[in-house]
Here is the input.
Amino acid sequence: MITKRIIPCLDVKDGLTVKGVQFENLVVAGDAIELGRRYAEEGADELCFLDITATNEKRKTLAALVKRIAANINIPFTVGGGIKSVDDISVLLDSGADKITINSAAVRNPELVTQASKEFGEQCIVIAIDAREVAGEWYVHTHGGKQKTDIKLFEWAKEAQERGAGEILFTSMNNDGTKNGFTLEATRQLTEALTIPVIASGGAGAKSHFKDVFEQANADAGLAASIFHFNEIGIKELKDYLKAENIHVRG
Amino acid sequence: MKVAILRYNAGNTQSVQYALERLGVTPLVTDDPALLTSADKVIFPGVGHAYSAMNYLKSKQLDQLIPQLKQPFLGICLGMQLLCEHSEEGDTACLGVFPVKVVKFDAHLAQQQSAKLKVPHMGWNNLQEMNGKITKGLTANDYVYFVHSYYVELADYTTAQTDHIVPFSAMLEKDNFHAAQFHPEKSSQQGSQIIQNFLEL
Here is the structure.
Protein backbone atom coordinates (compact mmCIF):
# COMPACT_ATOMS: atom_id res chain seq x y z
CA MET A 1 0.00 0.00 0.00
CA ILE A 2 1.24 3.43 -0.90
CA THR A 3 2.50 5.49 2.04
CA LYS A 4 1.73 9.03 3.11
CA ARG A 5 4.71 11.20 2.28
CA ILE A 6 6.64 13.67 4.43
CA ILE A 7 8.29 16.38 2.34
CA PRO A 8 10.68 18.93 3.81
CA CYS A 9 10.65 22.08 1.73
CA LEU A 10 13.77 24.15 1.33
CA ASP A 11 13.15 27.72 0.24
CA VAL A 12 16.38 28.64 -1.46
CA LYS A 13 17.83 32.09 -1.91
CA ASP A 14 21.32 32.33 -3.40
CA GLY A 15 21.98 28.67 -2.51
CA LEU A 16 21.01 29.08 1.14
CA THR A 17 17.84 27.83 2.76
CA VAL A 18 15.61 30.56 4.17
CA LYS A 19 12.28 30.64 5.92
CA GLY A 20 9.77 33.41 6.51
CA VAL A 21 6.52 33.84 8.37
CA GLN A 22 3.49 34.23 6.09
CA PHE A 23 5.87 34.80 3.19
CA GLU A 24 7.77 37.70 4.87
CA ASN A 25 10.80 38.24 7.18
CA LEU A 26 13.32 35.76 5.82
CA VAL A 27 15.93 34.18 8.06
CA VAL A 28 18.73 31.89 6.94
CA ALA A 29 18.41 28.22 7.94
CA GLY A 30 21.45 26.58 6.33
CA ASP A 31 23.09 25.15 3.21
CA ALA A 32 20.47 23.64 0.89
CA ILE A 33 22.39 20.54 -0.13
CA GLU A 34 23.59 19.71 3.37
CA LEU A 35 20.07 20.01 4.73
CA GLY A 36 18.68 18.00 1.83
CA ARG A 37 21.15 15.20 2.38
CA ARG A 38 20.45 15.15 6.10
CA TYR A 39 16.72 14.89 5.49
CA ALA A 40 17.19 12.08 2.97
CA GLU A 41 19.24 10.14 5.52
CA GLU A 42 16.63 10.73 8.22
CA GLY A 43 13.90 9.26 6.05
CA ALA A 44 12.29 12.16 4.17
CA ASP A 45 10.20 10.76 1.32
CA GLU A 46 10.92 13.58 -1.10
CA LEU A 47 12.49 17.00 -1.05
CA CYS A 48 11.17 20.22 -2.45
CA PHE A 49 13.48 23.10 -3.40
CA LEU A 50 11.87 26.43 -4.18
CA ASP A 51 14.07 29.21 -5.49
CA ILE A 52 12.26 32.20 -4.12
CA THR A 53 14.46 34.72 -5.87
CA ALA A 54 14.51 33.03 -9.26
CA THR A 55 14.93 35.56 -12.01
CA ASN A 56 16.12 35.05 -15.54
CA GLU A 57 19.73 35.87 -14.62
CA LYS A 58 19.68 33.40 -11.77
CA ARG A 59 18.29 30.53 -13.85
CA LYS A 60 21.78 29.14 -14.51
CA THR A 61 22.60 29.23 -10.81
CA LEU A 62 19.48 27.21 -10.11
CA ALA A 63 20.40 24.58 -12.73
CA ALA A 64 23.85 24.27 -11.16
CA LEU A 65 22.28 23.82 -7.73
CA VAL A 66 19.93 21.15 -9.13
CA LYS A 67 22.92 19.22 -10.49
CA ARG A 68 24.62 19.29 -7.09
CA ILE A 69 21.43 18.12 -5.37
CA ALA A 70 20.90 15.29 -7.88
CA ALA A 71 24.47 14.10 -7.44
CA ASN A 72 24.15 13.97 -3.67
CA ILE A 73 20.62 12.81 -2.91
CA ASN A 74 19.05 9.38 -3.54
CA ILE A 75 15.38 10.29 -3.11
CA PRO A 76 13.12 12.23 -5.48
CA PHE A 77 13.14 15.98 -5.49
CA THR A 78 11.02 18.74 -6.91
CA VAL A 79 12.33 22.11 -8.01
CA GLY A 80 10.42 25.32 -8.53
CA GLY A 81 10.66 29.07 -8.57
CA GLY A 82 10.20 31.38 -11.50
CA ILE A 83 9.52 28.67 -14.10
CA LYS A 84 7.89 30.37 -17.08
CA SER A 85 8.37 28.15 -20.10
CA VAL A 86 8.84 24.65 -21.45
CA ASP A 87 12.51 25.56 -21.95
CA ASP A 88 12.90 26.43 -18.26
CA ILE A 89 11.45 23.03 -17.36
CA SER A 90 13.66 21.23 -19.82
CA VAL A 91 16.82 22.75 -18.29
CA LEU A 92 15.85 21.71 -14.76
CA LEU A 93 14.80 18.16 -15.70
CA ASP A 94 17.99 17.73 -17.72
CA SER A 95 19.96 18.85 -14.67
CA GLY A 96 18.43 16.03 -12.62
CA ALA A 97 15.18 17.35 -11.10
CA ASP A 98 12.50 14.65 -10.87
CA LYS A 99 9.57 17.04 -10.87
CA ILE A 100 9.12 20.73 -11.33
CA THR A 101 6.58 23.01 -9.75
CA ILE A 102 4.92 25.90 -11.53
CA ASN A 103 2.94 28.58 -9.70
CA SER A 104 2.42 32.12 -11.05
CA ALA A 105 3.24 31.32 -14.69
CA ALA A 106 0.60 28.58 -14.77
CA VAL A 107 -2.05 30.98 -13.46
CA ARG A 108 -1.06 33.59 -16.03
CA ASN A 109 -0.77 31.08 -18.86
CA PRO A 110 -2.70 27.84 -18.15
CA GLU A 111 -1.72 26.56 -21.59
CA LEU A 112 1.79 26.10 -20.14
CA VAL A 113 0.43 23.26 -17.96
CA THR A 114 -0.95 21.49 -21.03
CA GLN A 115 2.25 21.95 -23.00
CA ALA A 116 4.52 20.88 -20.15
CA SER A 117 2.46 17.80 -19.41
CA LYS A 118 2.48 16.71 -23.06
CA GLU A 119 6.18 17.34 -23.41
CA PHE A 120 7.48 15.79 -20.20
CA GLY A 121 4.63 13.64 -18.87
CA GLU A 122 2.14 14.51 -16.16
CA GLN A 123 4.15 12.71 -13.49
CA CYS A 124 6.71 15.51 -13.30
CA ILE A 125 4.41 18.53 -13.42
CA VAL A 126 3.41 19.80 -9.98
CA ILE A 127 1.13 22.81 -9.87
CA ALA A 128 1.71 24.88 -6.74
CA ILE A 129 -1.21 26.97 -5.56
CA ASP A 130 -0.93 29.62 -2.86
CA ALA A 131 -4.40 30.53 -1.68
CA ARG A 132 -5.89 32.71 1.03
CA GLU A 133 -9.35 32.41 2.50
CA VAL A 134 -11.28 35.64 2.53
CA ALA A 135 -14.87 35.59 3.80
CA GLY A 136 -15.30 31.89 3.16
CA GLU A 137 -13.78 31.85 -0.33
CA TRP A 138 -10.28 30.66 -1.20
CA TYR A 139 -8.54 32.95 -3.70
CA VAL A 140 -5.42 32.04 -5.64
CA HIS A 141 -2.44 34.35 -5.09
CA THR A 142 0.63 34.67 -7.28
CA HIS A 143 4.12 36.16 -7.11
CA GLY A 144 5.05 34.55 -3.80
CA GLY A 145 1.67 35.45 -2.35
CA LYS A 146 1.96 39.14 -3.11
CA GLN A 147 -0.73 39.39 -5.79
CA LYS A 148 -4.31 38.40 -5.19
CA THR A 149 -6.32 37.11 -8.15
CA ASP A 150 -10.06 36.55 -8.57
CA ILE A 151 -9.45 32.90 -9.38
CA LYS A 152 -10.93 30.42 -6.95
CA LEU A 153 -8.79 27.62 -5.54
CA PHE A 154 -11.03 24.67 -6.37
CA GLU A 155 -11.76 25.80 -9.91
CA TRP A 156 -8.10 26.36 -10.67
CA ALA A 157 -7.03 23.05 -9.13
CA LYS A 158 -9.55 21.18 -11.26
CA GLU A 159 -8.48 23.00 -14.38
CA ALA A 160 -4.83 22.22 -13.65
CA GLN A 161 -5.71 18.53 -13.27
CA GLU A 162 -7.63 18.55 -16.53
CA ARG A 163 -4.70 20.18 -18.28
CA GLY A 164 -2.40 17.39 -17.15
CA ALA A 165 -0.92 18.36 -13.78
CA GLY A 166 0.35 15.26 -11.96
CA GLU A 167 0.05 16.68 -8.47
CA ILE A 168 -1.19 19.76 -6.61
CA LEU A 169 0.88 21.47 -3.92
CA PHE A 170 -1.63 23.52 -1.96
CA THR A 171 -0.33 26.14 0.47
CA SER A 172 -2.77 27.89 2.75
CA MET A 173 -1.45 31.42 3.18
CA ASN A 174 -3.69 31.87 6.22
CA ASN A 175 -1.88 29.02 7.96
CA ASP A 176 1.66 29.40 6.57
CA GLY A 177 4.20 30.09 9.30
CA THR A 178 1.62 30.08 12.10
CA LYS A 179 2.42 26.55 13.34
CA ASN A 180 -1.25 26.14 14.20
CA GLY A 181 -1.77 23.23 11.82
CA PHE A 182 -2.70 22.66 8.20
CA THR A 183 -6.03 23.90 6.91
CA LEU A 184 -8.15 20.76 7.03
CA GLU A 185 -11.48 21.59 5.43
CA ALA A 186 -10.08 23.14 2.23
CA THR A 187 -7.52 20.33 1.89
CA ARG A 188 -10.25 17.73 2.33
CA GLN A 189 -12.38 19.39 -0.33
CA LEU A 190 -9.39 19.37 -2.70
CA THR A 191 -8.56 15.69 -2.16
CA GLU A 192 -12.25 14.82 -2.68
CA ALA A 193 -12.52 16.87 -5.85
CA LEU A 194 -9.29 15.66 -7.51
CA THR A 195 -8.05 12.30 -8.73
CA ILE A 196 -4.36 13.36 -8.61
CA PRO A 197 -2.35 13.52 -5.36
CA VAL A 198 -2.50 16.59 -3.12
CA ILE A 199 0.40 17.85 -1.00
CA ALA A 200 -0.78 19.92 1.96
CA SER A 201 1.41 22.83 2.98
CA GLY A 202 1.33 25.72 5.42
CA GLY A 203 0.95 25.67 9.18
CA ALA A 204 2.66 22.50 10.40
CA GLY A 205 3.88 23.06 13.95
CA ALA A 206 3.34 19.74 15.70
CA LYS A 207 3.43 16.04 14.87
CA SER A 208 -0.31 15.78 15.38
CA HIS A 209 -0.87 18.28 12.59
CA PHE A 210 0.40 15.70 10.08
CA LYS A 211 -1.85 13.02 11.54
CA ASP A 212 -4.80 15.41 11.23
CA VAL A 213 -4.15 16.31 7.61
CA PHE A 214 -3.66 12.65 6.61
CA GLU A 215 -6.62 11.32 8.60
CA GLN A 216 -9.13 14.13 8.34
CA ALA A 217 -8.24 15.63 4.96
CA ASN A 218 -6.82 12.54 3.20
CA ALA A 219 -3.78 14.51 1.99
CA ASP A 220 -1.28 12.36 0.10
CA ALA A 221 1.70 14.23 1.47
CA GLY A 222 2.49 16.85 4.09
CA LEU A 223 5.06 19.53 3.40
CA ALA A 224 6.80 21.72 5.94
CA ALA A 225 9.89 23.83 6.28
CA SER A 226 10.83 25.56 9.50
CA ILE A 227 9.90 22.80 11.95
CA PHE A 228 12.44 20.59 10.21
CA HIS A 229 15.12 23.22 9.56
CA PHE A 230 15.21 24.39 13.14
CA ASN A 231 15.12 20.83 14.53
CA GLU A 232 11.82 21.34 16.26
CA ILE A 233 10.62 17.99 14.95
CA GLY A 234 12.92 15.30 13.54
CA ILE A 235 11.73 13.39 10.48
CA LYS A 236 12.33 10.03 12.10
CA GLU A 237 10.58 11.14 15.26
CA LEU A 238 7.62 12.34 13.18
CA LYS A 239 7.40 9.06 11.30
CA ASP A 240 7.65 6.97 14.47
CA TYR A 241 4.79 9.00 15.89
CA LEU A 242 2.67 8.57 12.74
CA LYS A 243 3.30 4.82 12.70
CA ALA A 244 2.21 4.57 16.31
CA GLU A 245 -0.93 6.45 15.29
CA ASN A 246 -1.58 3.86 12.54
CA ILE A 247 -0.77 6.18 9.65
CA HIS A 248 0.94 4.24 6.88
CA VAL A 249 4.41 5.75 6.41
CA ARG A 250 7.75 4.44 5.15
CA GLY A 251 10.75 3.83 7.35
CA MET B 1 33.25 -2.43 -16.46
CA LYS B 2 31.53 -0.57 -19.28
CA VAL B 3 28.00 0.48 -18.37
CA ALA B 4 25.94 2.13 -21.09
CA ILE B 5 22.85 4.22 -20.46
CA LEU B 6 20.68 4.16 -23.55
CA ARG B 7 20.07 7.72 -24.70
CA TYR B 8 16.70 8.49 -26.27
CA ASN B 9 14.03 11.17 -26.15
CA ALA B 10 12.41 10.00 -22.92
CA GLY B 11 15.44 9.23 -20.84
CA ASN B 12 15.84 10.79 -17.45
CA THR B 13 19.46 9.77 -17.75
CA GLN B 14 20.95 12.27 -15.33
CA SER B 15 19.59 10.67 -12.14
CA VAL B 16 20.63 7.18 -13.21
CA GLN B 17 24.05 8.51 -14.10
CA TYR B 18 24.46 10.04 -10.64
CA ALA B 19 23.22 6.88 -8.93
CA LEU B 20 25.89 4.87 -10.78
CA GLU B 21 28.54 7.43 -9.90
CA ARG B 22 27.61 7.12 -6.23
CA LEU B 23 28.41 3.40 -6.65
CA GLY B 24 31.76 4.24 -8.24
CA VAL B 25 30.82 3.56 -11.88
CA THR B 26 31.08 6.18 -14.62
CA PRO B 27 28.57 5.26 -17.31
CA LEU B 28 28.53 6.09 -20.97
CA VAL B 29 25.34 7.72 -22.25
CA THR B 30 24.84 6.70 -25.86
CA ASP B 31 22.48 5.68 -28.66
CA ASP B 32 25.32 4.26 -30.77
CA PRO B 33 24.47 0.60 -31.64
CA ALA B 34 28.14 -0.45 -31.61
CA LEU B 35 28.77 1.02 -28.16
CA LEU B 36 25.53 -0.45 -26.80
CA THR B 37 26.37 -3.88 -28.16
CA SER B 38 29.88 -3.87 -26.71
CA ALA B 39 28.89 -2.60 -23.24
CA ASP B 40 29.01 -4.99 -20.28
CA LYS B 41 25.67 -3.72 -18.98
CA VAL B 42 22.94 -1.60 -20.53
CA ILE B 43 20.47 0.54 -18.60
CA PHE B 44 17.30 1.81 -20.28
CA PRO B 45 15.74 4.51 -18.09
CA GLY B 46 12.75 6.52 -19.06
CA VAL B 47 10.18 9.08 -18.12
CA GLY B 48 7.81 10.22 -20.81
CA HIS B 49 5.32 9.02 -23.37
CA ALA B 50 5.39 5.49 -24.83
CA TYR B 51 4.33 6.46 -28.34
CA SER B 52 6.90 9.19 -28.94
CA ALA B 53 9.60 7.07 -27.28
CA MET B 54 8.91 4.11 -29.60
CA ASN B 55 8.95 6.41 -32.63
CA TYR B 56 12.35 7.67 -31.62
CA LEU B 57 13.71 4.17 -31.03
CA LYS B 58 12.43 3.13 -34.48
CA SER B 59 14.01 6.14 -36.15
CA LYS B 60 17.38 4.95 -34.80
CA GLN B 61 16.65 1.24 -35.47
CA LEU B 62 17.10 0.70 -31.75
CA ASP B 63 13.79 -1.22 -31.72
CA GLN B 64 15.61 -3.92 -33.69
CA LEU B 65 18.77 -3.80 -31.60
CA ILE B 66 17.40 -3.85 -28.03
CA PRO B 67 15.68 -7.29 -28.10
CA GLN B 68 18.87 -8.79 -29.58
CA LEU B 69 21.20 -7.58 -26.82
CA LYS B 70 22.82 -10.34 -24.80
CA GLN B 71 24.38 -8.59 -21.83
CA PRO B 72 22.47 -7.83 -18.59
CA PHE B 73 19.90 -5.19 -19.48
CA LEU B 74 17.84 -3.11 -17.02
CA GLY B 75 14.71 -1.20 -18.04
CA ILE B 76 13.43 1.40 -15.60
CA CYS B 77 9.88 2.83 -15.47
CA LEU B 78 8.93 3.70 -19.07
CA GLY B 79 11.98 1.62 -20.03
CA MET B 80 10.26 -1.41 -18.47
CA GLN B 81 6.97 -0.64 -20.19
CA LEU B 82 8.66 -0.29 -23.58
CA LEU B 83 10.13 -3.79 -23.16
CA CYS B 84 6.58 -5.19 -23.06
CA GLU B 85 4.41 -6.08 -26.01
CA HIS B 86 1.90 -3.28 -26.14
CA SER B 87 1.05 -0.12 -24.18
CA GLU B 88 -2.34 1.51 -23.88
CA GLU B 89 -0.46 4.81 -23.76
CA GLY B 90 -0.96 6.04 -27.32
CA ASP B 91 -2.02 2.48 -28.32
CA THR B 92 1.65 1.70 -28.90
CA ALA B 93 3.27 -1.50 -30.12
CA CYS B 94 6.40 -1.89 -27.97
CA LEU B 95 9.56 -3.99 -28.09
CA GLY B 96 7.99 -7.34 -27.18
CA VAL B 97 10.77 -8.71 -24.97
CA PHE B 98 8.17 -9.49 -22.31
CA PRO B 99 4.89 -10.85 -23.75
CA VAL B 100 2.83 -8.67 -21.41
CA LYS B 101 0.50 -5.70 -21.75
CA VAL B 102 0.80 -2.23 -20.24
CA VAL B 103 -2.53 -0.73 -19.20
CA LYS B 104 -3.71 2.47 -17.52
CA PHE B 105 -4.74 2.61 -13.86
CA ASP B 106 -8.49 3.04 -13.61
CA ALA B 107 -8.91 6.41 -11.85
CA HIS B 108 -12.62 5.80 -11.27
CA LEU B 109 -12.02 2.42 -9.67
CA ALA B 110 -9.36 4.12 -7.55
CA GLN B 111 -11.88 6.68 -6.31
CA GLN B 112 -14.33 3.98 -5.28
CA GLN B 113 -11.85 2.20 -3.03
CA SER B 114 -12.08 2.97 0.67
CA ALA B 115 -8.63 4.55 0.79
CA LYS B 116 -9.53 6.73 -2.22
CA LEU B 117 -6.38 6.03 -4.17
CA LYS B 118 -4.85 8.43 -6.68
CA VAL B 119 -3.55 8.26 -10.23
CA PRO B 120 -0.63 8.74 -10.96
CA HIS B 121 0.62 6.14 -8.48
CA MET B 122 3.12 8.51 -6.95
CA GLY B 123 5.20 7.72 -3.90
CA TRP B 124 6.72 4.91 -1.86
CA ASN B 125 5.15 1.48 -2.01
CA ASN B 126 6.29 -1.93 -0.86
CA LEU B 127 7.69 -4.84 -2.84
CA GLN B 128 6.19 -8.29 -2.34
CA GLU B 129 6.77 -11.79 -3.69
CA MET B 130 10.33 -10.95 -4.69
CA ASN B 131 12.11 -13.79 -6.48
CA GLY B 132 14.37 -12.10 -9.04
CA LYS B 133 18.14 -12.00 -9.30
CA ILE B 134 18.55 -8.30 -8.54
CA THR B 135 16.50 -8.03 -5.34
CA LYS B 136 18.84 -10.07 -3.17
CA GLY B 137 19.53 -8.31 0.10
CA LEU B 138 16.07 -6.73 0.14
CA THR B 139 13.43 -7.72 2.66
CA ALA B 140 9.76 -8.31 1.89
CA ASN B 141 7.85 -5.03 2.16
CA ASP B 142 10.87 -2.83 1.58
CA TYR B 143 9.76 0.47 0.07
CA VAL B 144 10.73 1.85 -3.33
CA TYR B 145 9.66 4.97 -5.21
CA PHE B 146 7.05 4.81 -7.98
CA VAL B 147 5.70 7.50 -10.34
CA HIS B 148 3.49 6.17 -13.13
CA SER B 149 -0.04 6.14 -14.55
CA TYR B 150 0.30 2.94 -16.60
CA TYR B 151 1.23 -0.45 -15.20
CA VAL B 152 2.31 -3.90 -16.31
CA GLU B 153 -0.12 -6.68 -15.47
CA LEU B 154 1.01 -9.65 -13.40
CA ALA B 155 2.65 -12.26 -15.61
CA ASP B 156 4.86 -15.34 -15.61
CA TYR B 157 7.88 -13.06 -15.74
CA THR B 158 6.85 -11.00 -12.70
CA THR B 159 9.63 -11.12 -10.11
CA ALA B 160 8.20 -8.61 -7.63
CA GLN B 161 4.75 -7.18 -7.20
CA THR B 162 3.14 -4.14 -5.63
CA ASP B 163 -0.45 -3.23 -4.92
CA HIS B 164 -2.07 0.01 -6.02
CA ILE B 165 -5.75 -0.25 -6.96
CA VAL B 166 -4.78 -3.70 -8.30
CA PRO B 167 -1.70 -5.91 -7.78
CA PHE B 168 0.73 -5.30 -10.65
CA SER B 169 4.27 -6.14 -11.77
CA ALA B 170 6.85 -4.06 -9.93
CA MET B 171 9.66 -6.05 -11.59
CA LEU B 172 10.07 -8.39 -14.53
CA GLU B 173 12.88 -10.72 -15.50
CA LYS B 174 13.50 -12.91 -18.53
CA ASP B 175 16.93 -14.22 -19.50
CA ASN B 176 19.28 -11.20 -19.52
CA PHE B 177 16.40 -8.68 -19.35
CA HIS B 178 15.54 -7.12 -16.00
CA ALA B 179 13.02 -4.39 -15.43
CA ALA B 180 11.69 -2.22 -12.62
CA GLN B 181 8.54 -0.11 -12.72
CA PHE B 182 9.85 1.98 -9.82
CA HIS B 183 12.95 4.16 -9.79
CA PRO B 184 15.87 2.36 -8.11
CA GLU B 185 17.98 5.48 -8.70
CA LYS B 186 15.58 7.37 -6.40
CA SER B 187 14.76 4.64 -3.92
CA SER B 188 17.25 5.33 -1.14
CA GLN B 189 19.49 2.45 0.05
CA GLN B 190 17.11 -0.24 -1.25
CA GLY B 191 17.35 1.21 -4.76
CA SER B 192 21.15 1.39 -4.60
CA GLN B 193 21.20 -2.25 -3.55
CA ILE B 194 19.18 -3.21 -6.63
CA ILE B 195 21.51 -1.29 -8.94
CA GLN B 196 24.53 -2.82 -7.20
CA ASN B 197 23.04 -6.31 -7.67
CA PHE B 198 22.50 -5.57 -11.36
CA LEU B 199 26.09 -4.38 -11.76
CA GLU B 200 27.29 -7.62 -10.17
CA LEU B 201 25.41 -9.90 -12.60
In short: Chain B touches chain A through 41 residues (CB under 8 Å). The radius of gyration of chain B is 16 Å. Chain B has a mean pLDDT of 94.
